[in-house]
Structure formats: structure tokens, C-alpha cells
Amino acid sequence: MSGLVKVCICIAFTTLGLVAFTATPGDRALTVVAGLPVVTVGFDAGLGWIGIGQTARGLLVFAQGGYGLVAFTQGGIGVIFGVGQGMLGLLAIGQVGVGLFGFVGQLGFGAQAVVGWRNRGKAWNRALSSELQEVLTPLWRKPT
Asked: Where are the domains of the chain?
């Protein structure tokens, strides 16, 4: 399992734990850390550590649309990192997107881009896999 997948799994389980154990009577959690509620539900709830819902904003966002430092959305902005169908961010992973430092997906732009238009066979898949590994490895591993 790649390092990026492990990081995404850790983020997802941490978020689920915080959401499950935080009292949220309305659209904002009662628990406040450093002036921000731990969980906000919906875009109108304001900025929180974790934003969830159909549209949301927060430092970490899980929604169909929204923005945050790290965003897992269908379409949105992840300032540092974004995963979704239409993304904008420093590193964007999606079907369509713009990544200032890098982009991985089908159609988009980035300083380093790994772009695929359609499946061209096993050789093309191996080449794409090696390009992805080359682009993403410096993000979480030091060169040996």
C-alpha cells in the first residue's frame, strides 16, 4: 500500500473518530480548539477544523463542494492538497484540475503533471504507474 493511501486512510479514520465523539447539536460542534469548532456541518456553519456536508469549508474538508487546506471533495479547492473530480490546489489529484506544484489526473495543468487520456494497454499503465511514483515519492520519502 502506498504512503499516500495510508495518509488518506489515517485522515479519514481520525475525522470519523472526531465526528463520532464530538457533540454537534446543530451545525457546529460544542468542542472548540484554538477558537475554531472541531466539526462544522455545511457551508453556512462557518470555518472549523473539519468541515463535512454537501458544501463545507474548514481546515480539513470532506464534502461534495467546498474549500480548505486539505480537501476531499467532488469539486473544490484544497490549498495544500486536493482530491476530487474537479480540483484546484498546490497538489491536485482528480479528473480535471490545476495544481501549482503538481497535478495527477486525466485533464489539467501542473508544474509536474501526470496526465492520462485513455487506457492504452499494460505498457502504458506501467509507465503511468512509474511516473506517478516518481512524482509523488518526494512528498513523503527522503531520497536514499
From this structure: 3-140
